[in-house]
Amino acid sequence: MNIRLIIALMLAWVVVPATQAQVQTTSELVGSWTGKINVMGTQLTLVLHLKQVDGNVVVSLDSPDQSAKGIPCYKDFLSDDSVALKVEMINAVYHARLADGKLNGIFTQRGMSFPLVLSRGVEQLPRPQTPVPPYPYNTQEVTFCNAPDGATLAGTLTLPQGFDTMKKGSAPVLLMVTGSGQQNRDEEIFDHKPFLVIADHLARHGIATLRYDDRATGASVGGEVKRATTQDFMCDAAAALQYLRSLNIFGKVGCMGHSEGATIAFMLAARQEADFIISLAGPGVKGDTLLAAQANRIMQLSGMPASTTVAALRQQQAVQQVPWMKWFIDYDPSDDIRQTHCPVFALNGDNDSQVISAQNLTAIRRLLPPSSMNLVKEYPSLNHLFQHSTTGLPTEYRQIEETISPEVLNDIAAWVSTVCK
User: Fold this and answer.
1) What's the rounded Cα separation, in Å, for the pair 79 and 111?
2) Are 388 and 382 in contact (CB under 8 A)?
3) What confidence category does residue 12 fall into, taking pLDDT thresholds of 50, 70 and 90?
4) CB atoms < 10 A from the CB of 101, how many?
5) DSSP element (H, E) containing 8
6) Of 99, 146, 263, 313, which has the fewest Cβ atoms less than 10 A away?
7) What is the longest distance spanned by two Cα atoms in the chain?
8) How far apart are CA 346 and CA 327, in angstroms?
């Protein structure tokens, strides 16, 4: 059984419209149903949605552990106690019958079959670190523009606790830049909101932040996305730094990026646009080398031989056809890291299966110009999201209650306070 096949197929169809041929117009099964399949020891959550829409029942499938939602399903059969579905986009079928209040069935994909029992409702996982109002600090909804790219970015400016009593221009401010893919200002993923958690922690420790929705995402409008590369997203972040400086109310202005966002932080620092930067799981090697190592690590953790080479990766059709990917695999961050002379805090977890710490953090440490203000730190057992983890596989992210390690939060606040004295 090939878990990588299932993951790849599902991740390819995130947020697609649930259009389909209509068969039955009603069913007692209308609602949401949740269950898990066991693939080589890994539990994957699946959620089936049956919704009444304009007199018909529309069916879609979510795989929340893979952040895949709205996969359309075709109804071969639907009654008050049975369902037979085709999920053509991922070459899967599901047949089930209602018994004792549960849908008992078999999920089959490319010749592999898995028992799948679904219960009514949607699984709600606790997120104890997510802050809830009222907050002991003030926030402001703001917008700023990347005029050359036609993008208007919307975000949240969080002022630190006690800001009104601080000397003007004394509080540092940190711009937060998300990882790859269009994400909202909280970098929301798998029901976690890491940027919200970080912003809340920093506000309680005297540090302001600005986090924003990526272009054409959330409340942000405009800006090319389909053909955009990291270079384009860097221009959005540069506009954000310019906006923060234009307010004339803060002290030092820094940039914190996660994953691809860390690449952007180094690009901005090399251009002397940031007073300090924080690299959360940032790349330190060329894109094709990073992605090959990522694929091999995930295959190893999934019980498969590591067989991906840089040459094979570069020949993949998806790599060749996506402008962002073509730019990323050719980009080598070495020069930007070498030209970063502002203070840097680079951190990673040794359980990171996406940006391998031993490969990338080692390269960053070697390339950075010497400075007593720099801090390069590896954290045991933390994954790509800086959660305490067992394997580091992406399929764990959603199941872990912790959004981000408290040690990481404390270290970020302490380091920023030190370099901004």
Assistant:
1) 26
2) yes
3) very low
4) 7
5) helix 3-11
6) 99
7) 69
8) 23
| Cβ–Cβ < 8 Å for 184, 215 | no
CA gap 217, 230 in Å, rounded: 16
What percent of the chain is modeled with pLDDT above 90?
84
CB distance 387 to 397 below 8 Å = yes
CA distance 70 to 19: 10
pLDDT digits (tens, 9 = 90+) for 237-288: 999 999 999 999 999 999 999 999 999 999 999 999 999 999 999 999 999 9
- Residue 229: name the closest of 88, 331, 306 by CA: 331
6 secondary structure, DSSP code = H
Tens-place pLDDT, residues 292-304: 999 999 999 988 8
Q: Please state, in angstroms and rounded to a whole number, the distance separating the CA atoms of residues 420 and 81.
A: 64
The Cα 191–Cα 252 span in angstroms is 32
Rounded CA-CA distance 15/18 in Å is: 9
Pair type for strands 102-109 and 56-63: unpaired
Structure tokens at 297: 């690590």
Q: Indicate the helix (H) or strand (E) that contains 145.
A: strand 139-146
Please tell me the distance from the alpha carbon of residue 139 to that of residue 241, in angstroms, as a whole number. 18
- pLDDT of 23 higher than 90: no
The pTM of the full predicted model, rounded to 2 decimals, is 0.88
DSSP assignment of 228-271 equals --HHHHHHHHHHHHHHHHHT---S-EEEEEETHHHHHHHHHHHT
